[in-house]
Amino acid sequence: MSDNYDFKCRILEIRRNWRGADIEHINSAYVTIHEDNIELRKKGLVIKSELGTTNFYYNDISSMTYDKPGLFHTTSNININLYSGEKFVLQKVKVENYEQLHEKWEAFKKNPQKTNNVSSDSLLKYAELYKEDLITEEEFKAIKQKLIGNLSEDSIKFCKNCGLELSEDSKFCSGCGTKVD
């Protein structure tokens, strides 16, 4: 593992499975803070194997908070919530790590056009949420516009069945054949 990272911590990942139940995973992580994303290189806690890299783009983050040690936990944590509903807790971090990360996130929010990176995984997750009626068409449009940027809200239509973008005059989806409302 390269020594090129900003800090090391434990990461608690909370994701929903297909039945809607929260699944938790805890691993070690080497965190690198970039201009437009946070890179987490994960490593197993018990078996020290490499578990891959995850990137969180700042435009996917809905909130970020810092919990200092107290009555309910003995370590300091950075809580990161994504618009997709996923939650990540970076455990055993210093307040300096949070300040550095939060500063980059706030700077990105003030100037989001600084990057052209769009997390295709994020867009696909939102398309899946839209397809499953977990978010509305308006919410999907807003999220897609935020991820991709500079899209004309009025001209964008999406298939209710598969989430594919439709042309203005479409009567049927070219992807799945569903009739357009």
Task: Report on the architecture of this protein.
- Helix 2 packs antiparallel against helix 3.
- The strands form two sheets. This protein has a seven-stranded antiparallel β-sheet. A two-stranded antiparallel sheet has the order 8-9.
- It is built from three helices and nine strands.
- The protein is α+β, with helices and mostly antiparallel strands.
- Residues 150-154 have low confidence and may be disordered.
- It is 22% helix and 33% strand.
- The protein has helices spanning 95-110, 120-131, 137-148; strands at residues 7-16, 22-33, 37-43, 50-57, 61-67, 77-82, 87-91, 157-158, 165-166.
- The longest helix has 16 residues, at 95-110.
List the helices and strands and how they pair.
Layout (H helix, E strand, L loop, with lengths): L6 E10 L5 E12 L3 E7 L6 E8 L3 E7 L9 E6 L4 E5 L3 H16 L9 H12 L5 H12 L8 E2 L6 E2 L15
Antiparallel strand pairs: 1-2, 1-7, 2-3, 3-4, 5-6, 6-7, 8-9
